[in-house]
Structure prediction request, 233 residues.
Amino acid sequence: NFMLTQAHSVSESPGKTVTISCTRNSGSIATNYVQWYQQRPGSSPTTVIYEDSKRPSGVPDRFSGSIDRSSNSASLTISGLKTEDEADYYCQSYDNTNHWVFGGGTKVAVL
Amino acid sequence: EVQLVESGGGLVQPGRSLRLSCAASGFNFDGYAMHWVRQAQGKGPEWVSSISWDSGSVGYADSVKGRFIISRDNAKNSLYLEMNSLRPEDMAMYYCAKGLGRYQLPGGVDYWGQGTLVTVSA
Prediction:
């Protein structure tokens, strides 16, 4: 099976833009959709991006997702950072037998 | 508004069984696959099991295959997870989650419940 690798942490100031990457180590990132989940401390995960770039209802358009075939990675970009965006963010994909793979998570700090 | 409410968690001894339930509302339950995802304290999420809209297709993580059984009752808008031969490593928060389509694929979710805690200890 493949692995998804994320940076352990990133920090940025309020109002700025942060981009989190998720790199697939084997097979094409474009083969299966990537989802992004936000988990604030003490809360259950919520979905901020599904199917590479779609936002569930209620997720602000400050959150955007994309894939880059050249680097075989997916990215989550959060613009206009707010303190409420401080959370762990996990990328997730799956193989063709529906075995899911999660990235290790990126902790976003808004300083 | 999509709502997923899990129940049935608790303290159980190793080797015993537990049945989790998830009550769904706010969407066309019988139009979507459903999933169970768990998360141990301080760890990332781990997919556990999936079931298609009509229960025609199910899938399990290798770590639970042969011990857990996923099922659903579309008439009751409910999802279940029967957990047998529980092990200490099964201890986690268990989340019910709504799938992206009718079938297990694409594998992912767009809505999560609040979770129910399963503690496995003697």
About this structure: The interface with chain B takes residues 32-33, 35, 37, 44-47, 50-51, 56, 90, 92-94, 96-100, 102-105 of chain A (CB under 8 Å). The beta strands of chain A are 4-6, 9-12, 18-24, 35-39, 46-49, 63-68, 73-78, 87-94, 100-102, 106-110. The CA atoms of residues 19 and 77 of chain A lie 4 Å apart. The mean pLDDT of chain A is 96.
